[in-house]
Amino acid sequence: MFSGLVELGEKGLSDEEVKARNFSARLLGLMYEDLLEVWFSERMGFNVLGKDVRRGVYGGRRVSVDFILEKDGRLYAVEAKRWPAYLEGQLKRLNLNNIERVKKTFGKFGTPFLEGDFVNEYRFEGRGIDGKILVWWDVEGSEAGRVRDELKLDGLIPLKRVLNELRGKVGDVVGKRKEWADRLFNTLLK
After folding, report:
1. 55-101 pLDDT tens trace
2. What CATH architecture applies to the domain 31-189?
3. What is the CA radius of gyration of the chain?
4. The model scores a pTM over 0.85
5. Which end of the chain, N or C, is less packed with Cβ atoms under 10 Å?
């Protein structure tokens, strides 16, 4: 369903279709963390302690993560990447074949989230975390367990699944952004 709106990587797309999918992927990028916040709290029972957290520390320096979650007294750091169109869609599905490239890409962005010692070394407000969760656009289902183990994750969540589960249930989040976009587009068209 979402694939035809935001994913690149298919052969034979027209230039217009590529532009449309890139545009839609960028729009999704502006709101997917808000949708994840709803999913984590309302569907998964996590307490969201922070979103776009920039006050955590790793290796003596501040390191940002997308979320800090708490459940049953345990803290989790979360990184969420929604890259259905990045590099022409080459990294949209996380699997064993592209895991090394994904690690390098994280390194390029300066985040140590995928480092093996991240859970032991990262501190949020002076408190250690108990685990880390990665949200990726899509995950090769048959390899998910091995990818999770290889990256030392406590959770590996496909964003496509989250969006499908939330479809029709987040009108307030999506409706507000649609209203903002409509105002901008209507102003530009007048």
Report:
1. 999 999 999 999 999 999 999 999 998 777 666 667 788 899 989 98
2. 3-Layer(aba) Sandwich (3.40)
3. 17
4. yes
5. C
Residue with tokens 């996590």: 46
Q: Kind and range of the H or E element at 36? A: helix 15-38
First-to-final CA distance of the chain: 32
Handedness of CA 19, 23, 24, 28 (dihedral sign): positive
| Cβ atoms 51, 66 nearer than 8 A | yes
Cβ(75)–Cβ(67) below 8 Å: no
- How many Cβ atoms from other residues are within 10 Å of residue 149's Cβ? 10
pLDDT band, very low/low/confident/very high, at 5 (cuts 50, 70, 90): confident
Q: What is the 3-state secondary structure (H, E, C) of 112-136?
A: CCCCCCHHHHCEECCEECCEEEEEE
> Could you state, in order of their start, the residue ranges of all structural domains in the chain?
31-189
Residue 39: half-sphere exposure toward Cβ, Cα within 13 Å: 21
Amino acid, res. 36: L
Query: Is-contact 38 166, C-beta < 8 A?
Result: yes
